[in-house]
Amino acid sequence: MERVSSAPEMDDVISTDQSSRSTKRRAKVWDYVDSELVDGKEKAICKYCKAHLSSVAGKGTTHLNRHISTYCHAISQEERQRFLATQKTKPDEAHVFDPVVFRGLITNMAEKTIWGDDLVKHLIDVCKEEILAGNRPQGIFTRIGWKNVEDKFFARTKKKCTKTQLKNKLDNLKKDFTQFMELKIVATGLGWNEANQTVDCSNTWWDEHLEKCNNPERGTKCNHVRFRKHGPKHLDDLHFLFDKVHVTGATAMCPGDVSSCDSSSDDVLEVTEKTNEAWNKPKPKKRKQMSGAAQEKEEKSPFYQMYKNTCMKIESADEKISTSVEASSAPLQANLVPTIAEAMKMVKACGIQEKTAMMHTATSLIMKAEFREILFALETNEGRFDLIEREHKKSTT
C-alpha cells in the first residue's frame, strides 16, 4: 500500500502554518482527494494515483495540498495548474495560469467580436423572412422558425451560431431600439435629421437632458447620448422587428420573447377562469364559537393578526381579479386585430403579386396593427386593393 513515504520525510519538510489560507481555499483540495476508512482509520486517497495519505491531527490539509501540487505523478499538468491557481493567495506569489478559465475568456471574446455590420444585416433579413412566412406567431418564433433562422444565417455567412447567440444579439438590438425610441418620446416636438436618422436637438436641450438623466452618485449615465449624432443602424428594419416595443416595457416584443402584448389575451382569460373556479370551491367549516375571554386572548396573538391580514389581502386580490376580468372581457371581443399572416392572405386575395413594388409596400403597411384593423374592416377585395394602391402611390411620390 503506497503511502506518503514515497516523498522522503515530507511530513517534516512541509509547513503546517495555514494562517494565510482561508477555509474555503483549503477545502479545494477535496475536489482532488477522497476520504474513506482503512483498518478503522480515516485515510485520504488521491483520486489520480490512489495513494493513501495519512490524516494526521493538527496538520490540516497542507500535506494533501503538497501531494496534489508536487508529488502526484498521475495528475495531468492542466489539472495541476488549475489546482495551483486556487492556492496562490499571497501578494508576493506569482499568478498561476488557469488554462480552462483562459479558454472560456477566449470563447466569450470570440462571441462578442463576431458581429460585424454585414452579419447583423443578414440576421435581420433572415428574421424578417421568417416573420413574413408566419413562423413568429404572437411575437414568438416557433421551433421551425428558429431552425430556419440558424440554417439560413449559416448558409449566407458561413458562421455557425447557436440559437442562444442569435437570440442574445436580437435582444441587444431590441435594447438599442428601445432606448432610441425612449429618446424620440422625450424629444417629441423637436426636429428630425433624416440623414443621420436621429432627433435634431440643440446643444442646450442636450445639456439639460443629460443633467436630468445622469446620476453621478449612483454611477449611472444617460443611455441616450450615444444617439446624439446618429441613430441606430438599420432603423427601418428594427421597426419591422420590434414594432411597438417602445410603448411600454410590459408590452415589449421581439423574436424569442416568452410573452407579448398580442399573445397574452387568451392566457389571461384561462388563468382568471381557473382562479375563479378556485375561489368558488366550498370554504372549510368555521370553528365553533369560543368564549369571550378565549376569543379576546386569541385576537391579541401575533399569529392571529398575521392570519387576519393574510385573509384581507386574499379578499382584496380576489376583488381585483374579478374587476379585471369584467373590464377586459368586452374589449377582447371588440378589438380583434388580424395577425400578420392573416393580413398577408387578404393582401394576396386582392390580386397583389409577390416580387412587386406593391407587395413591398403592403408588407411594410401590415406590420402596423392599425392598418391591419382597417384592412380587415373593408368588406371587398377591391376596396382593400384601392387602399394599398393609394398608400403605394403616396410612398413613391
UniProtKB/TrEMBL annotation:
Keyword annotations: Coiled coil, Metal-binding, Zinc, Zinc-finger
Coiled-coil blocks: 156-183
InterPro entries the record matches: Myb/SANT-like_dom, Znf_BED, Znf_C2H2_sf
Annotated Pfam families: Myb_DNA-bind_3, zf-BED
Residue numbers spanned by region Disordered: 274-299
SUPFAM superfamilies, per database record: beta-beta-alpha zinc fingers
GO molecular function: DNA binding; zinc ion binding
Protein name: Uncharacterized protein
Organism name: Zea mays (Maize)
